[in-house]
Write a structure and sequence with these properties.
7 strands, DNA-directed DNA polymerase, 43% helix, hydrolase, DNA-directed DNA polymerase activity, alpha/beta, five-stranded mixed sheet, globular, RNaseH-like_sf, two-stranded antiparallel sheet, Nucleotidyltransferase, domain 5, single chain
């Protein structure tokens, strides 16, 4: 099927089928009072060509689902995106995605449509979520002309909120893995990092319920209050 530029001749070239899929993507659900156990979350991790959010690109997407208070292993997502101009760099030593694997990857528009259909209307969880949110938003805009509006919750922000006794304040995922004694077989791989982030999230949600935080609305309220306190302390 031939491609055409559907966005005033300036946007990405999409097939009619891709355009129809883009138009059918679910709107994000509003935050509500449902208990966390009844909420569906998509836990996301990205591997990228680097850490520059303006210049670098998404190489792979890994995600798992938390639903009914458990990780649904039947709902997992993994795609490596085709990047024809990608070359090995310092980041390759971290994520281990060889240029050949990227060259055999899925067309970015197809991979991103697959992912957003997988997400549906669910909120997303990620560790250092702002990076993932901005990288995903940039990829969606570039490849699909799609504006990301789904809510992201940052596990790196939730953890110190619910674990005030911990000495970790701005630690990475490895520090929180050690704090909770999680066993990890692999790191710096999108699917593996998404899975361990989901395991950490479930342990944090258990703490949240014991602290009277049992909905996304209440969690957002507590996070916003913490942000305001931190901002006031920095003045």
């Amino acid at each position: 099927m031939s491609k055409f530029n559907w966005f005033s001749g300036r946007g990405p070239a999409l097939t009619q089928q891709q355009l129809e899929r883009r138009q059918a993507l679910a709107e994000p659900a509003a935050l509500d009072e449902r208990p966390l156990r009844e909420q569906r979350f998509v836990v996301l991790d990205l591997e990228t060509t680097g850490l520059n959010m303006r210049r670098d690109q998404v190489l792979s997407i890994g995600a798992v689902v938390i639903e009914n208070g458990a990780i649904e292993l039947s709902q997992q997502f993994e795609r490596t995106l085709h990047r024809p101009d990608h070359h090995a760099s310092a980041s390759t030593l971290i994520h281990g995605i060889a240029p050949g694997e990227v060259a055999r990857g899925v067309d970015p528009a197809e991979a991103l449509l697959d992912f957003m259909e997988f997400v549906g209307d669910s909120p997303l969880l990620a560790f250092h979520a702002e990076f993932d949110r901005r990288m995903l938003a940039g990829a969606l805009k570039q490849s699909l002309g799609y504006r990301l509006q789904h809510r992201f919750f940052d596990v790196a922000e939730i953890a110190p909120l619910l674990c005030p006794q911990s000495r970790i304040r701005q630690g990475g995922l490895d520090e929180w893995i050690a704090e909770f004694g999680l066993q990890v077989q692999q790191r710096h791989h999108a699917s593996a990092d998404a899975l361990v982030t989901a395991e950490l999230s479930l342990m944090l949600f258990s703490k949240a319920r014991r602290q009277g935080v049992d909905s996304l609305i209440e969690l957002e309220r507590r996070l916003s209050s913490r942000r305001r306190r931190q901002q006031a302390m920095s003045l």
